[in-house]
Amino acid sequence: MLDATTRTELLDLYGRYAQAIDANDGDRWIECWLPEATFVPGVGAATAGRPIVGHAQLRSFAERRPDDYPRARILTTNHTFEQASDHIAGRCYGLVVDVGGDRPELAAHVVYHDEIVRYEGRWCFRARRPEADVEHRRRS
Predict the structure, then answer these.
(1) Which of 5, 20, 94, 109 yields a CA-CA distance of 20 to 30 A from 80?
(2) How far apart are CA 136 and CA 111, in angstroms?
(3) Residues linked to residue 76 through DSSP beta bridges, in sequence order
């Protein structure tokens, strides 16, 4: 079982990740990732299942949001963390809320499967693989 300080630091990573991607802030978002990290989006017609590897690609994704959700809020809950051989395995549920219209609209529900490691004094994602349970297409 992880100690309270580690768990709090991991939850902070999830919060920084969501706030940075929601703001389309590529520089802040890549601070959440190892330089050679892999992200495989689980939603978005143009991006689902296509690996994004390394800081340059991650920054571009965050700034352009080609996943159909340029105005979204990512909310995560039910976080679990387990020590694995060379990383912490994180898992949580995520809601993608589209805030691009006149009212918030639930766009997707995903289950995140994460590999988290310590890098330069902070926790970072080595790999993130959200799997969509359900996704609704953006409204016109």
Answers:
(1) 20
(2) 16
(3) 94
Return the exposure string of 56-78: e unless at least 16 CB atoms fall within 10 Å of the residue's CB, then b: eebbebbeebbbbbeebbbebee
Q: Pick the closest to residue 53 from 37, 34, 30 (CA basis).
A: 37
d(C-alpha 34, C-alpha 53), whole Å: 10
Q: How far is CA 119 from CA 36, 116, 125, in A?
A: 12, 9, 9
Determine the pLDDT at residue 137.
59
Measured CA to CA, the distance from residue 85 to residue 124 in angstroms comes to: 16
Task: Say what percent of the chain tops pLDDT 70.
Answer: 97
pTM: 0.92
Give the helix/strand (H/E) hosting 132.
strand 131-135
- Those residues whose C-beta lies under 8 Å from the C-beta of residue 23, and which sit 6 or more positions away, are none
For the purposes of burial, counting CB atoms within 10 Å of the CB of 107, is it exposed (0-12), middle (13-18) or buried (19 or more)? buried
